[in-house]
Amino acid sequence: MTENAATYAAIALQLAARSVEGAPDRAAARAQMLAQIEEVGAKLTASMIFVEQYGGAPVRLAVLPEYLLTSYPGRISIPEFAHKAALEPDGPEYEAFGRIAQRRNVFIAGNAYEIDDHFPGLYFQTSFVVAPSGEVVLRYRRLNSMFAPTPHDVLSKYLDIYGIDGVFPVARTEIGNLAAIASEEILYPEIARAHALRGAEVFVHSSSEIGSPMATHKAIAKRARAFENLAYVVSANTAGIAGTMMPHASADGNSMVVDYKGMVLAESNAGETFTAFAEIDLGALRRARRKPGMTNYLARQRTELFAPVYATTTVQPADGLIRDGAIELPDRNHFVEAQQSVLDRLCKDGLI
């Protein structure tokens, strides 16, 4: 890593997500998603031209919102949603994003639901980064979700296939070491810290969250994850969600870029916009990480202190979807019932 790394601009592109719930079948859902990707490409191109004229630094990173192409699953069954809306890891949607990345010489970070042939019938919410080469250079599956399967629910099998590098992946690129945090996972400091301890410098955060002039939990957490890890956070929120019964603008606004000191460099208001853009200064970040001092929180970590507590305390257990060595396809009620059993046990043990 060179200390004098060039600066570049990053955009948190705030766009409206579109539900595929109304699509009559898989083919119609795929056609809708591919058409939307083309629109994203046009909007990204126009945004990059303006940012580079206005700000000067070349745009090398664009972050898209959570589940931009499909919206959330709602109450549709897990196998049905996997069939209708989840992307294939080498599917045409990633190829379409790759063509945009190549054409604009930009890294595109996004979030989608994705199937995995190793886990038939399931889907995972996946944050990805597509490089200017057109290749997917980062694939991170969300680890903490309230109503959807995660790698943690099948952890023993997932580790056998992908190892710890597949659980906490970091992409080492010419624009820095990139790692993804999905949606509400910004509220869990362990996820960001695990990536930072593996070298992450820039967190790409695709989200769909309540926008507010008040300090929301996520808004506070974005700043905390940045300064406690000496890392940039580029967080893109949805500009509303179309095609659901929920009021359109319920998840809208407050996309932002946060620097490694926890300072918000840019933040969007509501609506579709590119106005959350700012420069990423890797050289300054790396100098800060290498300098002794009270604010070098990453270097002052004493991980051995905490390892025994985590190793001997189980809150929500792993492998919750594995029964007698086989993967069990859950219904939507499974996840609430699993959390209730955790709460009952923690109460019984006097921990809460």
Secondary structure topology:
Layout (H helix, E strand, L loop, with lengths): L7 E7 L2 E2 L7 H30 L3 E5 L14 H8 L6 H13 L2 E8 L9 E7 L5 E6 L13 H13 L3 E3 L2 E7 L6 H9 L4 E5 L10 H13 L2 E5 L4 E2 L13 E3 L5 E4 L5 E8 L1 H8 L13 H10 L9 E2 L2 E2 L5 H16 L4
Parallel strand pairs: 1-3, 2-11, 3-4, 8-9, 9-10
Antiparallel strand pairs: 1-14, 4-5, 5-6, 7-8, 10-12, 12-13, 15-16
Helix pairs in contact: 1-3, 5-6
Task: Report what the structure shows.
By secondary structure, the protein is α/β, with parallel strands linked by helices. It is 34% helix and 22% strand. It has helices spanning 26-55, 78-85, 92-104, 155-167, 189-197, 217-229, 282-289, 303-312, 333-348; strands at 8-14, 17-18, 59-63, 107-114, 124-130, 136-141, 171-173, 176-182, 202-206, 232-236, 241-242, 256-258, 264-267, 273-280, 322-323, 326-327. The strands form four sheets. It has a six-stranded mixed sheet with strand order 6-5-4-3-1-14. A six-stranded mixed sheet has the order 7-8-9-10-12-13, covered by helices on one side. The chain has a two-stranded parallel sheet with strand order 2-11. Helix 5 links the parallel strand 8 and strand 9 (202-206). Helix 1 packs parallel to helix 3 and helix 5 (189-197) packs parallel to helix 6 (217-229). The longest helix is centred in the first third of the chain and has 30 residues, at 26-55. It is globular. The termini are far apart. The model has no long low-confidence stretch (mean pLDDT 95).
